[in-house]
Amino acid sequence: xxxxxxxxxxxxxxxxxxxxxxxxxxxxxxxxxxxxxxxxxxxxxxxxxxxxxxxxxxxxxxxxxxxxxxxxxxxxxxxxxxxxxxxxxxxxxxxxxxxxxxxxxxxxxxxxxxxxxxxxxxxxxxxxxxxxxxxxxxxxxxxxxxxxxxxxxxxxxxxxxxxxxxxxxxxxxxxxxxxxxxxxxxxxxxxxxxxxxxxxxxxxxxxxxxxxxxxxxxxxxxxxxxxxxxxxxxxxxxxxxxxxxxxxxxxxxxxxxxxxxxxxxxxxxxxxxxxxxxxxxxxxxxxxxxxxxxxxxxxxxxxxxxxxxxxxxxxxxxxxxxxxxxxxxxxxxxxxxxxxxxxxxxxx
Length: 348
Description:
Layout: E1 2-4, E2 10-14, H1 22-34, H2 38-50, E3 57-62, H3 64-75, E4 82-86, H4 98-104, E5 109-114, E6 132-134, H5 165-192, H6 197-223, H7 229-253, H8 258-263, H9 271-298, H10 307-316, H11 321-347
Parallel strand pairs: 2-3, 3-4, 4-5, 5-6
Antiparallel strand pairs: 1-2
């Protein structure tokens, strides 16, 4: 729903899960496990059609709508004044950039959680510092998910809970388990598409650990009496050469960009084109989502004889997680190059 006040400010509100719609529940599961929400693309398209071009936009959302408004918020941070969510499903943090995580921890983001409800626990939560717990008038975890379960003052402002310790501990525990599940899903996807991100992560951690061990060895040897500094230096140099050779071996055999970087040491990147391609991929996914939504509605209209054909079509058309990964990769690449460029410019 979109509306406008007398001052021209735009309010855009996203609904929660339709309890009777299986598509919504599937979407919720995909969001938690993979971070890709087919409905999020539709929500983004709705925002683009209804937003205030001057940036006077306010987002609202409950439950699943809270996750969608959070997704819109981190993707359109400069265009949004404030984002208010109530008992929102946590946005999947795996693919978020540092800027997006910072956005979720700024004053513009206002997540309100009923002290007795549970949906906010279903995933890794990277904005715990921003959560305002609301006093509940019930201990039923399902009823407390709704708006009516909160306690409000005469001005309809929430009355903040004073007993959030138990909610926080339980939330961190359940959220931690869900986060491990999210990490496992991301790692599985990474291995399936033969992405080198996981290898790069292990390589960097491994070499950092080895460097720390070498420093520890050097410090221990210096405390031993009778060992000359020359001998200590030779031992440390030996281990450092071993680490350097391991790094070089990895770069030559596992880093796909190594040979290209050696051949073309100067990198010229048109970041505007990268953003353009990312937007094109987003539009393709939006179109796929639209077609998939149309197909989902047909399940209630066809007979058993056509069910198999419809299922085959449904499998071929839908939100593409690979396209979303490519889109995020292009945006992240632009951010990385801009950061590198700023560092270089600041050194001059």
